[in-house]
Here is the input.
Amino acid sequence: MNKDDSFPDLMIERHGRVALLTLNRPQVLNALATDLLGQLSEALAGLDADNSVRVIVLTGSLKAFAAGADINELSKKTGEYARTEDPRQGYWKTIRNVDKPVIAAVNGFCLGGGNELAMTCDFIVCGTGAKFGQPEVNLAVMPGAGGTQRLTALAGKGKAMRWLLTGEMIDAEEALSIGLVTEVCEPEFCVTRSLEIAQMIADRSVKAVTLIKKSVLESNLTSLNRGLEQEFEAFCELLSSPDKAEGIQAFLEKRKAVF
Here is the structure.
């Protein structure tokens, strides 16, 4: 495992023509703070430009792939800041524009921004104990990096609406049934299995793989881009609401929010 000083919260390991990229903030369940998201964006861009890498596997720990946003950061953020100064939208754009195949190997909690990150990958392999979800509504905010768009595309309107409006979690079996994940295995084999699939892809024609990925993404890219814009505008509006302040304060005080 290679620890790069440029990416203090990431670990990068090479398996032949496959790169394994591990989120490494275990003390906060890999919460996607802006600094971590920036590191991830830069690391993925570097691997995407590296001709010795053909496929990327992205993972976290057995306990959490990524458990959501950094609550302390979110509590201070306003809609105006998110629209005009926040670098996160640029980071998300870089992440979703990676040309090479990216596989998410998910164990444990995969919530909020973590679930959005996993869904940005080309497909997901998960362990039996994985828990997915978009619980932002519990803090009186909403997904702002594709959660409403990608979950609806995968699960359909009814199920996505329920999960987004209640904040309920989705277990591995349900995630498999709706196509959120493509395979479920024992947690300790999740990364190994993802690397095996990645190696299968790495053995294929680079040009064919690149064009297949591009064609699949193009199938709904135009509508998705518009949906992402609409979602982000709504997200910014909620960031400046009194309900958001109450939701986060209640979370920090470990009490039920009063809206």
